[in-house]
Amino acid sequence: MIQPGGNRRVIITNVSPSVEGGLFPAKAVVNETITLSADVFGDGHDEIAASAFIKHKSDTQWTELPMQFMVNDHWQITFRAEKLGFYEFRIEGWEDHYTNWKKGLKKKYAAGQDIAVELQIGANLLKEAAAAMPAQSKQILQWANQLAQTTNPEENVTLALSDDIAKVMYQYRNPELVTVYPTTFTIEVERTKAAYSTWYELFPRSTASEPGKHGTFKDVAKLLPRVAKMGFDTLYFPPIHPIGEKNRKGRNNSLTAGPEDPGSPWAIGNRLGGHKAIHPELGTLEDFKALIVEAEQHGIEIAMDIAYQCAPDHPYVKSNPQWFIWRPDGTVQYAENPPKKYEDILPFNFETDDWENLWKELKSVIDYWVDAGIRVFRIDNPHTKAFRFWQWMIGEVRVKTPEVIFLAEAFTRPRVMERLGKAGFNQSYTYFTWRNTKQELEEYMTELTKTEMRYFYRPNFWPNTPDILPPALIKGGENAHITRLILAATLSSSYGLYGPVYEFGINAPHGAKEEYVDNEKYEIKHWDWSAYTRIGEVITRVNRIRKQNPALHSTWNVEFAETTNDQIISYVKTDEDTGNSLIVVVNLDVFNTQSAQVKIPMPKLGLDYADTYVVRDLLSGSKYTWGEFNFVELNPYQMPAHIFKVEKQ
Amino acid sequence: MIQPGGNRRVIITNVSPSVEGGLFPAKAVVNETITLSADVFGDGHDEIAASAFIKHKSDTQWTELPMQFMVNDHWQITFRAEKLGFYEFRIEGWEDHYTNWKKGLKKKYAAGQDIAVELQIGANLLKEAAAAMPAQSKQILQWANQLAQTTNPEENVTLALSDDIAKVMYQYRNPELVTVYPTTFTIEVERTKAAYSTWYELFPRSTASEPGKHGTFKDVAKLLPRVAKMGFDTLYFPPIHPIGEKNRKGRNNSLTAGPEDPGSPWAIGNRLGGHKAIHPELGTLEDFKALIVEAEQHGIEIAMDIAYQCAPDHPYVKSNPQWFIWRPDGTVQYAENPPKKYEDILPFNFETDDWENLWKELKSVIDYWVDAGIRVFRIDNPHTKAFRFWQWMIGEVRVKTPEVIFLAEAFTRPRVMERLGKAGFNQSYTYFTWRNTKQELEEYMTELTKTEMRYFYRPNFWPNTPDILPPALIKGGENAHITRLILAATLSSSYGLYGPVYEFGINAPHGAKEEYVDNEKYEIKHWDWSAYTRIGEVITRVNRIRKQNPALHSTWNVEFAETTNDQIISYVKTDEDTGNSLIVVVNLDVFNTQSAQVKIPMPKLGLDYADTYVVRDLLSGSKYTWGEFNFVELNPYQMPAHIFKVEKQ
User: Fold this and answer.
1) B321 CA to chain A: closest CA distance, Å?
2) Do B375 and B301 form a contact (C-beta atoms < 8 A)?
3) What is the interface size between A and B, counted as CB pairs within 8 Å?
4) Does A392 touch chain B if contact means CB atoms closer than 8 Å?
5) CB B636 within 8 Å of CB B590
6) What is the pLDDT of residue A649?
7) B330 touches chain A (CB under 8 A)
8) Which of B73, B95, B339 shows the shortest C-beta gap to A415?
9) Which of A2, A334, A337 has the most B C-beta neighbours within 10 Å, making it the best mutation to test the interface with B?
10) How far apart are CA B619 and CA B541, in angstroms?
């Protein structure tokens, strides 16, 4: 059996951006330069043409973007998306008979061959186009007649090759001979913050000005100027809901809580309410809304933590028992990793027959807080909830409110973390927390930025979290805190800190665990917010540098520079639109001064190999004249890094 | 809107083998070990299971192959296809509740926890299965009752973990909770020769025993013992059809032929017939069929050349003028690459409105020769004919006669060569002809064997062809002929030579071109088939080594060994089924003796790093005791290579 369309000679393949062959949208942000590309080719050596067609899902008209031939049958075109939401694009290709004819004409004319018959062929091609394009037929027929009648070959060739004709003839194609790639691909365009954000995490209950008191949203409001001054644009709270009283955990995760123990905010729900309620000691819903508004005035968004799990006394357990697993002895199944038991937490059963209502209720939690003014959610342990739920929920929320950003807090296996990105999470925690050596950092950055991950996985680098105190910070102390902060903030355009503990350089582990002892998860802390620290000073400077340099607003523009010392890592970042270029050099040895020759990838800076240029260290203010090979020496007790701005001469 | 199936928690992705996400079949040969694999995972930490389902397209029943967990959520299973033709496979995954329960039971029991309720849960899982599997329900219910009633926990745990229950419970799954990957993938299983073949090309017209005479099929028959003795299994002829008389080319591709000039066999067709006719001076169709049969008796298959193009006097030009392009002056369009003209060749117009009949006629040419007994076709310049035609034609031919092998003679851009492989060509010419340095060879082999190409592109390495005399052979003379032959024959499981010219070391170029002067394409040659040559001797030895060593029957098992000299390349090949292992070491410098240390990838030989083993050079007979690091020295005037067989102690 012969399928129709066998005379379509052009082949299209390897379309990009594409995530799993188009099963998932590729990610972009507003005004980002997006490259649409494909391999497009025909049999033989005839000229072909290719176009991308793109439209916002809400538009009815497609825009045609003629693609440009690059190399090895690869074609591409760039565009900037101006609207939030979902764009669709498809690729078409066809044999370009007119251009092909021109190519032959030019060569034959140059070789002095008789072109009389050639000109007739060209005129026929024009007539064919005229018949198909009534609006332009008069003009085209005039050209055709000129070609057929003029006796001066030079005039004819000039006419045939004119841009006017080229423009019109590009529009002409025989639809029966046009190859359309069968998949229409999707690009999700999000707001800038999805790609560039700076997070500070604190526990609101630890913000009271007096020791021993429970902090409130009003206390947090007082800290907003400080957070803004340090350069953070996102202030993220652990869950703010009522905390379970049944099986509540005590200090240091002990099994029994004393009467004064506040419990873990991730044990959500008690007789006072669940995921749509606020822990009364923090304040009221009105207080919370007021804080959101006040934060906005400081350029800060409040990010909420959503942990889809319940304390045993969460109202859902009674109102919707079908969403939990019940054991033959009539008890409800708590979370466990045998033989360990987590008796303060009940997981939802995503295999329940009532899964549709469960999904709807969980989504309504997001809707509730979006209505309250929240646009940024950090999702706790998303890898222990069904992937299909996330894909549906995030899609539904963002169709209505495309500004909403979801950060996936998954520290688990690579395929699982990737899938959450594909399912729609705008940002994801990463393995950065444990990538310390030059080779580890370079390999991981290459994976994140030079593979298909580039299109579905937006990293958010966290040197620490309330759950994770990595060995590098335990062993390396203050110097390590500064080094890891600079790496996070300059490698990734989104990064965050579990703030007070980080600023104050607290790094006492809980026994042999990679966790903080006397963890704030289980107790209320009191911080001296006015204390000056070297770490806090560097955070502030680095965040200012981030704000002022668009090169740091993208993760995907990183290019590593070779160095002669494995303790010295260096990378170049350039923003194509503004020409802003930085060279970052970091000493990974937090105990010793290290030096190296750094070999700059000159073409990435738009420079020739023999050029010199001025670099100004945005951390220290020093200026140097640099070339391709440059000597650096960094003392971690002073400053473990240079963040050089390239100033071309 | 919520799609059904949201409670299916398992995710499947990255299925292999897959060519363009399943758009094209992956290639395999009969009895080859095929690995089916996928990333399969669920949310959380529960146990899952995955199976591949496979069937030959002609079968009605699927066979379930339970997959094994490897690492990082990757699952796989191997199978051997016993039938020629198309197999289909799909992947399924599901939460394995029973195994998950067992895992918890084991840990809780080991930790001394009370398992009474656990046992009830297990009994319930068994009852659920019993209800779904009536045939086995009696046995399952018996186990369930035992679990629920026995009071000895050790007995219960032993029963719960028994293989008998495991086997039955693997079969049980709730179909509503099984994830089925949406694409069903195809594997085309071909005969062994598609992957392992040894080609000799000669012009039948140059086989007459008397100089000046036109060779015949009967003359070729006399050479069969010689070809077989040299170890070739495929004897390939340029086109054997009547040669165009109009615009015939003379010697050395001159524009005008003398009355004695035989013309190029690729200018097909004259008043005596076209693609289904035989050039009368070669013999009759009966002679040809007799030759096919006689060749078979020597273990040799005759390969025909199919060039879909016409001489100006080909019968099609009159009978089917609509298949050609006609110019306004009433002449038919010949092939051209302006300003060059190829007036002895008319291309088909694959954009003709009558393309369906053109396709059918072109396919009928193959059918005709298949009926005559031919099973191997070398297709001339397939990249200048429509890709969709190949995909249809090859598919149709092979559904009926799956033994047929098509070799794509395309020397063109990478994406085009790749597409021909995807379209169904079983073997393809390659860039090997121009890959000379160690780095070039290693990179090219890696691309061919370690990327998706592995599944759709079967290389056939040719050091020369009648069209190509590469610089390496011009400059390097006899030594280069030997080196390039050994590389072709040991890197690739399929290779071929344009034979007589190669054996006799003829390498005089046509001016500055990379072509033979006095090219056999345009004149009849007379060869002294009895002459002894060093090149011929090495060909014979190497082909014997190929036959005796299954490690050389695959291209994809190549693993490079590091050497301390860029002029020395080394690689290991192992056949997993027989354990046959070879180490090949080649001196790429055809003028000077070179030496190096070779570092053997010991694990690829199934050896520990400290092991020693004996290697026997199959070319020279010498034996050495080797370890991980070994010294080699090779003189290209003696023998530029070792082909070591590994003999473990």
Assistant:
1) 17
2) yes
3) 159
4) yes
5) yes
6) 59
7) no
8) B73
9) A2
10) 7
Could you give the ipTM of this predicted complex? 0.94
> Quick one: pLDDT at residue A338?
86
How far is residue B364's CA from residue B401's CA, in Å, rounded to a whole number?
A: 14
Cβ atoms B623, B614 nearer than 8 A: yes
Instruction: List, for residues A108-164, the tens digit of each pLDDT value.
Output: 999 999 999 999 999 999 999 999 999 999 999 999 999 988 788 889 999 999 999
pLDDT at B151: 80
What pLDDT does residue B648 have? Answer: 75
Check A388 against B9: CB less than 8 A apart: yes
Show the 3-state SS of A28-62.
EECCCEEEEEEEEECCCCCCEEEEEEEEECCCCCC
- Is the pLDDT confidence value at A244 over 80? yes
Residue-averaged pLDDT of chain A: 96
CB atoms B120 and A95 under 8 Å: no
Q: CB distance from B342 to chain A under 8 Å?
A: no
Digit-coded pLDDT (tens) for A505-518: 999 999 999 999 99
Catalytic (active site) residue A39: no
* DSSP-assigned letter for residue A377: E
Contact across the interface for A415 and B111, Cβ inside 8 Å: no
| Residue A409 annotated to the active site | yes
Would you tell me the crossing angle of helices B534-548 and B471-491 to the nearest 10 degrees? 20
Place of tokens 């005379």: A7
Whether B96 and chain A come into contact, CB under 8 Å, resolves to no
Confidence bin at B148 (pLDDT 50/70/90): confident
Of B14, B117, B413, the CB nearest to A328: B117
What H or E segment, with its residue span, contains residue B569? strand B568-574
How buried is B611 (Cβ within 10 angstroms: 0-12 exposed, 13-18 middle, 19+ buried)? middle
**Res. A337: pLDDT tops 90:** no
Residue A113 at interface with chain B, using a CB cutoff of 8 Å: yes
Q: Which of B104, B339, B388 sits opposite A6 (nearest CB)?
A: B388
Distance from CA of A3 to the nearest CA of B (A): 9
Q: Which residues contact B176 (CB under 8 A, 6 or more apart)?
A: B5, B7, B8
CA of B176, closest CA in chain A: separation in Å? Answer: 10
With residue B632 as reference, give the H or E element that holds it.
Answer: strand B629-634
Q: Is the dihedral of CA B480, B482, B485, B490 positive or negative?
A: negative
Helix axes A438-450, A471-491, angle to 10 degrees: 40
What's the pLDDT at B649? 59
Q: What is the per-residue pLDDT for B23?
A: 94
The kind and range of the H/E element at B387 are: helix B387-400
Q: Do B43 and A9 touch (CB under 8 A)?
A: no
pLDDT at A241 over 90: yes
DSSP structure class, residue B550: G
**pLDDT, tens digit (0-9, with 9 covering 90-100), for B3-45:** 999 999 999 999 999 999 999 999 999 999 999 999 999 999 9
Distance between CA A20 and CA A39 in Å, rounded? 17
Chain B residues 517-546 within an 8 A CB cutoff of chain A: none
Note whether B121 contacts A: Cβ–Cβ < 8 A.
yes
Secondary structure of B530-543 as H, E, C letters: CCCCHHHHHHHHHH
Of the candidates B183, B412, B429, B416, the one whose C-alpha atom is nearest the C-alpha of residue A14 is: B416
Bridge partners (DSSP) listed for residue A12: A40
Phi/psi of residue B585, nearest 5 degrees: -130, 125
Annotated catalytic residue within B96, B361, B380, B520: B380
**What pLDDT score does A153 carry?**
86
Tell me what the mean pLDDT of segment A331-339 comes to: 91
Strand partners of residue B27: B188
B385/A43 Cβ within 8 A: yes
Residue A386 is nearest to which of B43, B392, B415, comparing CB atoms?
B43
